[in-house]
Structure formats: C-alpha cells, structure tokens
Write a structure and sequence with these properties.
single chain, about 500 residues, DNA Cyclobutane Dipyrimidine Photolyase, subunit A, domain 3, 22 helices, mainly alpha, Rossmann fold, FAD binding, 5 strands, Serine Threonine Protein Phosphatase 5, Tetratricopeptide repeat, five-stranded parallel beta sheet, DNA binding, binds flavin-adenine dinucleotide, Rossmann-like_a/b/a_fold
Length: about 500
C-alpha cells in the first residue's frame, strides 16, 4: 500500500508520481490518493484560486469514484498528517510530484524528515515540467538568465509521452473520502469573479478547442485580446488539472495535421511556426520555473541589481493612483479594460497584463510588488514563478527583462492591439458606444468633449509623456547615471 499525495497535480491522467506509485504497489496493495489542506499554504490563498482548487478537487474525487476508489482529504500540517495517514492505511511509502518554489521545498523537506522519523519510505517524481530545473543549463552548468538560449535547448530536447492513468485495481477500493470542505470552511469568501470551470474534462475541452483552429494562427493573433486566440490553459497548468506531456502531445498532433489542413487560408509553414510559437510559451513557463528554483528570493527581491534603490513613489497621491489602477479607473481605456477583466474573470489576456504592468511601474512609478500582490489576490492562474517573472520583466528588474528605457505607450498599445476598441467595449461599458478613434485618443480630448462622450468615465490620472520622462530619470538614478545637481533637481520634482 502507498499513499499518493496530490498537490499541484489534480488529475489522474498523465501524472508521473501517481503512475509510479501504482507501478510499485504490486499484488499486495494499492494506491490511496490523498489531498491535505495545509493552513500554511492556504494563508497565501485567495478566493479565485481556492474556488478553482475546490472545483478541481471535486472533479478529481469524481474521477477516483468512477474508478472504484476515492480521494482521502485531511486538514493540517502535511508533516504531521502524512505519517498519521500512512499509519492508518498501513502504507509503506508516500509518493508525490516535486514542486519548485522556495516555500514548497521547505515544506517538502519537513515532510521528508517526518516520514523518515516514522519509518515510512518516500519517493518523488518530476511531473509539472518537461525538463526539470537544473537540467537545461549554460555550458558552465548555470541556470539560464536569457530565454532565447534556454528555448533553443528546450525545443531540441526530446519530450516524454503522456503516462497512462492507473488501472482501477491499482487504486485502493476500501477508502471512503471525507466530504470536501466548502470555501467558507477554509476561511474564504466566494470570489466576485466568474472563475472558469475546473477539472481534467474542462481542461481537455479547452485544449481540444484551441488545437482545432486557433493554434494555427497563434503567432498572428495572440496579441489581440478581443480575438480570444490563446488556449486559456494557464489555470489548468498551474493546478495540474492537465499534464504538460498531454498538452505538448496535442501540439505535436496539430503539427502533424498541418499538411492535411482543409483550411487553405493558413499556409503550412505559417501553421508550423504558429504551433512552435505556442510551444515557446510553454517553455517560458519552464524558464521562469527554473529562475524561481535557482533564486527563491525573487519572490520579494529584484532579480537585477541596480547601483542604488529604485525610488518608487509611495506618497499619498501614489496610493490613490494605485487604488484607481486596481479599480480600472485610470482614464487609460486599455489599462482599465484589463483591470476590469481581471476582476470579472480572475484572468487577464497576456498582452494586457504586459500593458497594465508597464503602466503601474513606468507610468505610475509604483513598485512592482504592489502589482504582484494584486494579481496574486485576483488571478485564478496565479503562479509564483510566472507572475513574478511577468512583473519583474515589466518593471525592468527581472531576468531577460524589458530594458528600462522601453516604456509602453498605453494609447498606442491600445490602438495597435485593440484597433476597433472591442476589448475596451466589452469591459468598460462607459466607452462602449463611442468610436474607436475617441477611445484611443481619450487622453487628447478636451475635458468638455470627454464629459459629453462618456460622462461616467474618468480623465487620465497622469500624463503619459511626463511620467515617461520621470520613469527614465528614476531608472537612471538607480543606475547611478544622474549625478550632482541634476539628480537633486529630479528628486525634488517628486
Ligand atoms: C505581469 C504578468 C503576470 C503574469 N502572471 C502569470 C501568472 O500568475 N500565471 C501564469 O500562468 N502566467 C502569468 N503570466 C503569463 C501569461 O500572461 C499567462 O500565462 C497567459 O496570459 C495565460 O493565458 P493562456 O493560458 O491563454 O496563454 P497561452 O498564450 O495559451 O499560453 C499557453 C501557456 O503557456 C504559459 N505561458 C504563456 N505565456 C507565458 C509567460 N509570459 N510566462 C510564463 N508562462 C507563460 C502559460 O502556462 C499558458 O497557459 C503573466 C504575465 C505578465 C506580463
């Protein structure tokens, strides 16, 4: 008998640790699947993620019940709970899949010690990524800090096939799972957002739908938020409701089908490139996983060192600006649409994440950690490695980050990626009936004209050109490039 401890792998299919536990049980026993509600982990939780996790657990439990078994749930410190459960079920070993963040690794070290002390064996597998941290390195053996080099090796390395779910008789049938707690039992309110459906079936539906058509136009369409051209798999990949091998295999199948595509609007070569562009996003996820694994401190610290501290604004006006950003009331339509999508759906399109993050750090000169905390609270797909990577990229403090002098102009970004202002109209109803030209030139219209067109929508809270100059000075000072009087003048302008 073995316990399989589910964590960020809420599925039975393509689950390496679970398959390994089932393989090892032999004739004398079976696998007991377990999930532990850990209060230390829940302390970092937020309603949208907890909602998705509970729905994914319900789907997982149903999957086990369909296979004649059940999911055992417990609450407490896994270092105490797992040895107790091992004793209760007479299990000789506990198996789980590796997690790579600093907090998870500390917890796992404690669990290992507790199991050792109880005389229970333990075994782990790498499952959440194709190539685990530390296996794709520079020639000197260091983790990559530049994505392009990482990607080339990641792309060329062989990918494992999906693994089969355990057979019914590999799973313990004499277990009866406890009732799953409700969200209030875990200390959270229902999220305001409409969180997407959870579970392997829902994830497979998203993958199938994406691979039918959108994948072949991914590189052309992925930056346009109104086109809904991306997979929407981020929350599934974060919680492991679908396996990375299964997703990759579907992309390879899509590649194989390009030659036979009936749709002659997409050239074969373009389709192959589009699929590869999507695969490179899967590699970005693994790139940031290895950044976090090698540098757990990036959760709170800048990855990139500047000569002097970056003088983020923190005065009263800055705090008011932060509130306006969170509410989606900055007077910059594309920024506000993104922030409202986040509130409504616990999700935001990638291009718009980049725009709102640039706006917070380079137009409002607010510390990226404010943005990270807000995303952590509201995104169902919040993933420490990706969220931190995205924020530090936008703030020019991360690995392979946006150079500090490349500052997005929120108006031209809106014009380029939402030309008909459809995305803005969907999330900012106050602007739904005005022309795209007026939406994209909102900052240039007179106050009287703005009141006439959309009386409820705010004026821009800052002037982009002015803040851009301030951001450049702020970063130059941090780089030690502005000296003497000039520096004092710049600082007093704050
Ligand atoms: C400021 C900021 C914060 C972000 N926070 C998160 C986060 O908390 N969780 C998260 O999963 N992604 C995050 N991203 C990356 C990206 O925005 C989302 O992964 C993507 O928008 C999810 O939509 P999708 O599943 O349709 O993506 P698709 O375009 O379909 O991409 C497929 C998958 O590749 C991965 N991926 C795509 N882009 C990236 C990227 N830039 N970095 C790392 N992995 C990527 C995701 O797992 C995604 O599901 C963030 C980006 C920024 C700029």
């Amino acid at each position: 008998m073995r316990l399989f401890w589910h964590r960020r792998d809420l599925r039975v299919a393509d689950n390496r640790g679970l398959a390994a536990a089932a393989d090892a049980t032999g004739d004398d026993g079976a696998v007991v699947p377990v999930f532990v509600f850990d209060d230390d982990v829940l302390a970092h939780g937020a309603p949208p993620r907890v909602r998705f996790m509970l729905d994914a657990l319900a789907a997982l439990r149903d999957d086990y019940r369909d296979r004649g078994s059940d999911l055992v749930v417990a609450r407490g410190d896994p270092a105490e709970v797992l040895p107790e459960l091992a004793d209760e079920f007479g299990a000789e070993a506990v198996v789980w899949n590796e997690d790579y963040s600093g907090l998870a690794r500390e917890r796992d070290a404690r669990v290992r010690m507790a199991l050792d002390a109880a005389g229970v064996a333990r075994e782990t597998r790498h499952d959440a990524v194709h190539h685990e941290p530390g296996t794709i390195t520079t020639n000197q053996g260091d983790p990559y800090a530049v994505f392009t080099y990482f990607w080339k090796k990641w792309r060329d390395r062989e990918k494992a096939d999906p693994v089969d779910p355990p057979a019914g008789d590999d799973l313990a049938d004499a277990v009866a799972g406890e009732r799953l707690p409700g969200i209030a039992d875990l200390g959270f309110e229902e999220p305001e957002a409409d969180v997407q459906a959870a579970g392997t079936d829902a994830a497979r539906d998203r993958l199938d739908k994406f691979c039918e058509d959108a994948i072949y136009r991914y590189d052309e369409d992925r930056d346009y938020p109104a086109r809904e051209a991306t997979s929407r798999l981020s929350t599934d990949l974060k919680w492991g409701t679908i396996g990375v091998r299964e997703v990759y295999a579907a992309t390879e199948e899509a590649n194989a089908e390009t030659a036979a595509m009936a749709d002659d609007t997409v050239e074969d070569d373009d389709a192959v490139e589009a699929v590869e562009e999507f695969q490179s996003q899967l590699a970005w996820r693994e790139f940031y996983t290895q950044v976090l694994w090698a540098n757990p401190e990036v959760v709170t610290e800048n990855y990139k060192e500047y000569d002097r501290p970056i003088e983020w604004r923190d005065d009263e006006t800055a705090i008011e600006h932060l509130a306006a950003w969170k509410e989606g009331r900055t007077g910059y339509p594309i920024v506000d649409a993104g922030m409202r999508q986040l509130k409504e759906e616990a999700y935001m399109h990638n291009r718009v994440r980049m725009i709102v993050a640039s706006f917070l750090t380079k137009d409002l000169l607010l510390d990226w950690r404010h943005g990270y905390e807000h995303f952590k609270e509201h995104l169902a797909d919040h993933d420490t490695a990706n969220d931190n990577g995205g924020w530090q990229w936008a703030a020019s403090t991360g690995t392979d980050a946006q150079p500090y002098f490349r500052i997005f102009n929120p108006m031209t970004q809106g014009e380029r990626y939402d030309p008909d202002a459809e995305y803005v109209a969907e999330y900012v109803p106050e602007l739904a009936s005005i022309s795209a030209d007026n939406v994209h030139s909102w900052h240039e219209l007179s106050v009287g004209r703005r009141r006439q067109l959309a009386p409820e929508y705010p004026d821009p809270i800052v002037d982009h050109s002015e803040m851009r100059e301030r951001a450049l000075s702020m970063f130059k000072r941090a780089r030690g490039e502005v000296e003497g009087e000039e520096e004092e003048e710049e600082a007093s302008a704050d």
